[in-house]
Amino acid sequence: MSVSTSRAWAPEVFAPWPHTPGALLARVAARSTAFDATGAGGGASVLIGSAAGVDTTDVGRRARGELMERMGNVLAGRTAEAEAGARAGAGRPRPPASSVGPVRTCDWFTLRRDGVPAVDPGDPATGPVDAAHRGTPAREVRQLWCPGRVTESGEDVWVPAGAAFLQHRPPPGCAATHRAGSTGVAAHGGPDAAAEHAAWEILERDLVRRSWCDPVRHPPVPFDARGALPSGAGELRDLLDRESLRATALALPSPSGAEAVAVSVHGADRAHQTFGAGCGPAHDFPRTVARACWEALMVRWSMSAPVAVRAWDRLSRTGIPRTGLDHALWTFHAQDALKHWIGPATSLRDPPRPAPCTIRDASPLAVLAAHTGREVIAVDRCAGPPADEGLAVVRLIAPGASPLPARPVPGVPPHPFG
User: Any bridge partners for residue 74, and if so which?
Assistant: First the structure.
């Protein structure tokens, strides 16, 4: 199981908009048979990191960080899978669930019988279900488990590997009850910073999902994003103006201490919409809006990439978005997502005022736990080159917070996020 050399992980930083050379994108990729084929990679076994902004060093660092978090999490999963396979291949008697060890393979009832605290895979709030095993009682599924900890108390708790690791491949004799996405994985120099980053991501996606799926109960407040950008965002404003683009921002209902926003970049007639989103401290709202704008612009640029052109050729015939790329393409070419979310075009309100800066922000982990009313669990496990570099890669599992639906939901249009 080899990964392309680190020299290939120097991000490519480039200026894709000729009239605004200060607006930059960065992309970096790693290839390995350890990775699954992805839609964003055109069906290749590749992981990709990307970022947009105005500072060469910053966008390169963020693009590489996104790659490292995904790589570290996937390879940690491969290591756990190999540990389970080595045990089984050695012909050893299967240890009881309560035995000390880095991984366990059993069903949830076995863990409970042996007194091992574990996330309940049968709880609908645990996370995205693996579609291949819908209809099977999740507690009865023999699967791989890995250790985690409750972030507030530090207590140990075991979690299904499918909920912890991207692209999980169950060991022989096992299945997976869950299929985790990239939201909630972060890489930093230390586990605390990684966990906080992951918490903001999970909050963002859950708040977006709640509002998108039920905008009557969770109504967004639309405003012109340009009016909320920080004072140093001149290059971003110039880019929107020179490309004749509008940026409609939606302030989403958020818990105390946080502010979430979605931004759609589109033409004057709302044509060709692309979306970005962000969530952060309430006082940092202008920077959150700017990050969401850059994300929407990055998605917009990718709509003309060869991978996207081929994917749209297929999607235009099937009409059923499946992957993140599909959802972004469907919104760009075939759907007025803003009409679903906020109704027909109307005058935009003034942007919300940022909350005053406090001496100490509330921890995003505490905000997330209060938002869901459930304990947040961290799986601090990294492998491969990111571990060699000393990075901490943390996966957060927050029962009660859910990502955007990957499959059609009755009465709800396909979501607009890639």
Answer: none
Sign, CA dihedral 67-70-74-75, equals positive
Cα–Cα distance for residue pair 379/394, rounded to 1 Å: 6
Q: Render pLDDT for 109-149 as a digit per residue (tens, 0 to 9).
A: 999 999 999 999 988 877 667 666 666 789 999 999 999 99
Q: Summarize pLDDT for 372-411 with one digit per residue, the tens.
A: 999 999 999 999 999 999 999 999 999 999 888 878 888 9
- Which strands make up the sheet holding 274-281, listed edge to edge? 221-224, 246-252, 258-266, 274-281
Distance CA 218, CA 198 (A): 23
Residue 301 predicted with pLDDT over 60: yes
- For the residues 202-230, what does the mean pLDDT come to? 96
Which secondary structure element, helix H or strand E, spans residue 47, and what is its range? strand 46-53
Task: With beta carbons less than 8 A apart as the criterion, state whether 269 and 388 touch.
Answer: no
Query: Does 158 score more than 90 pLDDT?
Result: yes
In the chain, count H helices and then E strands.
11, 13
| Residue 356 reports pLDDT greater than 90 | no
What is the third-level CATH fold of 201-342? Double Stranded RNA Binding Domain (3.30.160)
Angle formed at CA 132 by CA 128 and CA 136, multiple of 5 degrees: 85
pTM above threshold 0.85: yes
Please report which confidence band the pLDDT of residue 170 belongs to, taking 50, 70 and 90 as the band edges.
Answer: very high
Three-state secondary-structure class, residue 51: strand
Q: Which helix (H) or strand (E) holds 31?
A: strand 24-31
What does 266-323 look like in DSSP terms, one character per residue? E-TTS-S-EEEEEEEEGGGHHHHHHHHHHHHHHHHHHTTSHHHHHHHHHHHHH----S
Please state, as a whole number, how many other Cβ atoms lie within 10 Å of the Cβ of residue 329: 27
d(CA 208, CA 376): 19
Query: CA dist 199 to 44, 185, 296, 371, Å?
Result: 30, 9, 21, 11
Query: Hey, where are the domains in the chain?
Result: 6-77, 201-342
- Decide: 24 and 54 in contact? Cβ < 8 Å: yes
Distance between CA atoms of 31 and 41, rounded to whole angstroms? 10
What would the two tokens of residue 164 be?
Answer: 């912890």
